[in-house]
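In the design runs reported in the main text, the only information available to the sequence generator was the tokenized backbone. The following block is the verbatim input for one such run; it is reproduced so that readers can re-run the procedure and compare outputs position by position.
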């Protein structure tokens, strides 16, 4: 079997309302899917992390840089392909967009391998340690409104996310450390003992501001404090983890085994959040997972993207070994964005219906069972939203 083509599909639409996190407001939803075609008719699908216009030049890396390196290769040789591409790109991008581009291609090769074997991705890896995964509802975005309006809206949205059936929820901060603590108080009150709440700062604080917010989160019982400081600030992470009782999480902006080795050895994370669509795909995710577990650091995958990324993460979460195991073991969760996203809800020929599953059950989601990723994008949908 040979690879005959590698295509990027960059999808975009204008959101019904602007959304914000601590770095910016955005009004456009983007997804970057990768399709790998083979000479025996099997097609694999993958996804590259990279919201916004990053996806447009990254399409060029996938199609004009990586595609010529892999045309004619056997798609089942995914580790050979990974190292060929990485070694040839090493001088130009050990992190960032080239790794995001390689991630989408690698995920598509795993999809092909599953389809050839007739096995779902989680079984190709080694089997499902769990058939269902608890989902946490990500929401409570920033808007151009007053602090007081944020407080009222976040209280309502936290309750609404729990009413949807989620048993854990994640909120944004970024108004400034003192106002952010007020926001967290409102969410903590709304959540009460109905579930967990987590706080995502998207690396907007200095270390001292992060200590201020983190002490508030200790009082309020937040489950984790995500990306409190810049990903490059290894000292800040280490000091915060040593000085705060709240779990420090992060890692979505880190790449490959070498980057992860550094942040794990730094001992600055209580919970690791690797992003499979950015760090190097499934092949590299499995190596990063092994590194995390070698450091006894639990893993909760980062997710931001389309239904392709949701399916990929469900398989990876199913196949994640227990750490350290037990009668009532620590369990990973699926990050699930509750804001408007057609690429998550309407992309597939057979939708995953995550929200309906969460509402129907105990806040958990079933792992796809079909070969490979077990999901197929709708071609007409792709055509409708494709840009660039
Ligand atoms: Ca995050």
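Verbatim output:
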């Amino acid at each position: 079997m040979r690879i005959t083509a590698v295509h990027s599909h960059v999808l975009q639409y204008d959101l019904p309302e602007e959304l914000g996190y601590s770095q910016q407001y955005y009004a456009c939803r983007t997804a970057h899917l990768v399709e790998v075609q083979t000479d025996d008719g099997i097609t694999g699908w993958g996804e590259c992390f990279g919201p916004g216009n990053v996806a447009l030049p990254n399409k060029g890396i996938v199609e004009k840089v990586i595609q010529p390196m892999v045309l004619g290769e056997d798609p089942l040789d995914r580790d050979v392909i990974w190292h060929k591409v990485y070694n040839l790109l090493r001088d130009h991008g050990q992190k960032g967009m080239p790794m995001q581009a390689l991630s989408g291609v690698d995920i598509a090769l795993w999809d092909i391998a599953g389809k050839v074997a007739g096995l779902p991705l989680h079984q190709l890896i080694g089997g499902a340690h769990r058939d269902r995964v608890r989902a946490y509802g990500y929401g409570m975005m920033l808007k151009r409104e007053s602090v007081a309006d944020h407080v009222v809206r976040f209280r309502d949205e936290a309750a609404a996310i729990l009413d949807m059936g989620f048993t854990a929820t994640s909120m944004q901060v970024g108004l400034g450390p003192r106002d952010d603590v007020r926001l967290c108080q409102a969410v903590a009150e709304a959540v009460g003992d109905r579930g967990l709440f987590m706080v995502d700062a998207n690396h907007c604080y200095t270390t001292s501001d992060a200590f201020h917010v983190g002490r508030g989160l200790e009082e309020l019982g937040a489950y984790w404090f995500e990306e409190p400081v810049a990903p490059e600030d290894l000292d800040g992470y280490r000091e915060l983890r040593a000085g705060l009782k709240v779990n420090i999480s992060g890692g979505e902006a880190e790449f490959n085994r070498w980057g992860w080795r550094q942040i794990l050895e730094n001992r600055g994370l209580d919970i690791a959040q690797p992003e499979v669509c950015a760090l190097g795909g499934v092949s590299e995710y499995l190596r990063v997972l092994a590194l995390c577990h070698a450091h006894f650091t639990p893993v909760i995958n980062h997710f931001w993207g389309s239904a392709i990324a949701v399916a990929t993460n469900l398989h990876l979460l199913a196949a994640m070994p227990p750490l350290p195991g037990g009668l009532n073991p620590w369990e990973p969760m699926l990050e699930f964005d509750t804001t408007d996203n057609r690429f998550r809800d309407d992309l597939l020929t057979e939708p995953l219906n995550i929200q309906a599953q969460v509402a129907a059950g105990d806040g958990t989601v079933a792992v796809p069972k079909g070969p490979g990723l077990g999901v197929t994008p709708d071609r007409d949908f792709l055509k409708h939203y494709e840009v660039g």
